[in-house]
Amino acid sequence: MPRLSGIDQSRAAPHLPAMNDILTITRCPRPFDPDKGAEVRALFPEVDSRMAELLEGTGGSSPYLAGLMAKEADWLRGALEAPRAALSAEGARLQGLDPLDPSLGSELRRGKRRMALIVALADLSGAWRLEEVTGALTDFGDLSAGVALRAGLASELKRKKLPEMTEADLDTGCGITLLAMGKMGAGELNYSSDIDLIALYDEDRFEDHREARPALIRAVRKMSSLLSEITGEGYVFRTDLRLRPDPSVTPVCVGMEAAENYYESVGRTWERAAYIKARACAGDVDRGEQFIATLRPFVWRRHLDYAAIQDAHAVRLAIRDSKGYHGPLCLPGHDMKLGRGGIREIEFFAQFHQLIAGGRDPSLRIRATVPALDRLAVTGWLPSDLATELADHYRAHREVEHRVQMINDAQTHKLPGKGEGLARLAALMGRDEAELRADLSRRLEAVHEATEAFFAPDPAAPLPPTDGPEAEEEGFDDAVLDRWHHYPALASTRAREIFSRLRPQLLAGLRRAAKPDEALQAFDGFLKGLPAGVQLFSLFEANPQLVDLICDIAGTVPDLALYLSRNSGVFDAVIGGGFFEPWPGVQALSVELAEVLAHEADYETRLDAARRWAKEWHFRIGVHHLRGLIAPEEAGAEYAGLAEAVLQGVWPVVQEEFARRHGPAPGRGAVVMGMGSLGAGRLNARSDLDLIVIYDADGQDSSEGRRPLPARVYYSRLTQALVTALSAPMAQGRLYEVDMRLRPSGNQGPVATSWPAYRSYQTESAWTWEHLALTRARVIAGPAALAADVMAFRAGIVSQGRDKGAVLREVAEMRRRILVAKGAGAPWEVKVGWGRNQEIELMAQAGGLIAGDPEGWIADGLQLAVGSGWMREEERAHLSDTYRLLWSIGQVGKLLSDHRLDPATIGEGGRALLLRDTCAESMEALDARFEAATQRAGEMISQVLEREAAPPQAPEEESDER
């Protein structure tokens, strides 16, 4: 691949690596005009026959290239031997010119002629692939723009119109950056392309940028004139500066701050699409790339952006209307770029798929068209065969476009309209005219069919059959349907248009619910809570399976439907790929979250990204449970695994932000220990997190930073920062509620416990219940060495074993106090009360603590109790069965609502879910089973404690007789 000297290749277009610098001929044009071809061949008598054939065919079919070969014959002889080296030398020559040299324009035009000639021959001969051809054209565009800008600025410096700048500032454009847009930005310039540039200046480079602004504007105008002006020696590049913000009222060079404000306030979808390909190509390149980075939120939306499809289709229709490109395909005069099935169709297809998903997946933010298609296929957004087919058509279309432009150096994309034009084109391509016509027609129709289905699908296709408008609404409450028109989601005309197409499918889905009226009310709550509708309705229209899902949720989990109305972005996860695949595990989740956070620039956006990510996975678990893909126990493990991954991802982010102000953590750092249900790996859909933070300052008194803190204060505030990061209600909601009452000394103790103090407390002061809690304790996040020490210490505490009677007496007393304080338990209460799960957990923890087994939990702990001889097998079996039953009921209850479970209020769908997960035949049977199981469990626990926790008898005193 040619490399033009002086270009920063790290910023340049995505070119292929250089290959052997030999013009290998694999194909040849035919001379349409044999006499002209013979004239050109006679100019190079020294070349071999194969090269002579290439030159003859080229000159005999392209009057423009024939003229270039005659004008640059001496230079071409050497360039044919090593075309890449020749281009590189030409670039070095141009960059070495004095920017104030009056002949600079002439030399740039000479360079353009030479570049156009050698690139054309490398293209026509098959020696270079499309990417090498367009890359060489783009490289020269970058170089020319940079040289011309330097000339314009040098003139202003000479006139002392930029007093704050010196000649050294020319290397960074004196504050100006040129953004290459469109094909130039993507490294895809066509053969006779104009170049789309946006000229911006950095206001911060000047004390008063308003004084420098006129000189900067003149410099950009001179650059444009130097490139675009047609002289007797031709032109360099037609230069288009109209892609800048609001070009009808802004000068050719715009301040960066003003541009950023424009895009944030009134930027349009087509401008978002344009910035997919934007690249800083000259001037202050680094500052230009920084500017592009600031526009990332404008270009790449947080959620799947299906509303962009309609915008894209509107642009396509506007192009067709303005150009008159309607009706069937007719090859003569057909526009290979803008016409039916043309290049723009493929580019739009790739770009708007990128806009839809690129906000969520940074790997899709690719400038070039073919690599973008490839990546869309890899990530599952396009079928791989379709991506391959469109890439093949794109390459073929671009080749035809280049040949059309080579004939007369015309900036046209239209096939010859009459006479022998197509025959000349076929000759330049070395193809039969009839075969070329057939191939062009086939490809153009194939592209049109593939892309039209995306931009303008049949709106009736996804809708179920109905018997008319009345049938759609039959049986539903008219008052509910009528008030939909007044909701914010349907305030805009566009939202109402899309929703009207969705309405039949939605109502049909709600009618299939067990209780259609309940489902309608739940969907009404969902619709009422939507702040806007266009984006989500577009998402539904493009993905009809989401309509079925929301109807399913509304018919079963109304509370989840209400949640979705306020967090509709989680629907993205359903179509983001892999939504219904098996659970990946905590490690995979941690890696995924780390990648998500790595793409965010600052603390708040990282936390927001973590919240969005966690909500999507939380939603996924709930849907899997709802659809019966996982059992309640599996859902509990997945909710816990998600919380673990969140802590592992957020804890380092919190520490990094805290260290920015107060320095790195003193000593060995801090670990986060999960207690209770989190430590046991069992959470429900609405669990809070029981956490303890343990730190080891390792003798270091304070941190070392801009605002150092004593170690104790450092870790206390760091812990508070973690709690805030997890529980503060932000724009994206909150991650988790946090409970730290299980730390040493409870609410009276410090929020972060030092490692020596923790060891001392557990060995000298801890209550039995705190050692029982250790059976479920587990380090979730933090430095590995400290985590290993903490877990080894915890295992040592539990492994000591305990006197059975002493532990069970403590358990009995704890049970008594809870029953006095909380009562025997409300109906359908699964956690606290007689024979409920809290009591069973206490017995299981006692089993692990008495046996000295730090890994025992619930079933394992109860089995350990049997093994230790203080629980009977039938007692263990019933307690285990009761625990599973109550866990299933509780998991369903928390999925359905944040309130206490009441079968009378959860709807028919909720009751059906409850019966499915408990394998009960009816609610009456489940109620009876619940009461019998908990009553019997409570009695068994009492029997065990009465039997095994009796205080030891004092030894009888010996009688005097003895």
TrEMBL record:
Residues 60-291, 552-788 form the Glutamate-ammonia ligase adenylyltransferase repeated domain. Pfam families: GlnD_UR_UTase (PF08335), GlnE (PF03710). CDD domains: NT_GlnE_GlnD_like. GO terms for cellular component: cytosol. Residues 940-962 are annotated as: Disordered. Keywords: ATP-binding, Ligase, Magnesium, Multifunctional enzyme, Nucleotide-binding, Nucleotidyltransferase, Transferase. One of its GO terms (molecular function) is [glutamate-ammonia-ligase] adenylyltransferase activity. GO terms for biological process: regulation of glutamine family amino acid metabolic process. This is Glutamate-ammonia-ligase adenylyltransferase. It comes from Pseudooceanicola marinus. The gene is glnE.
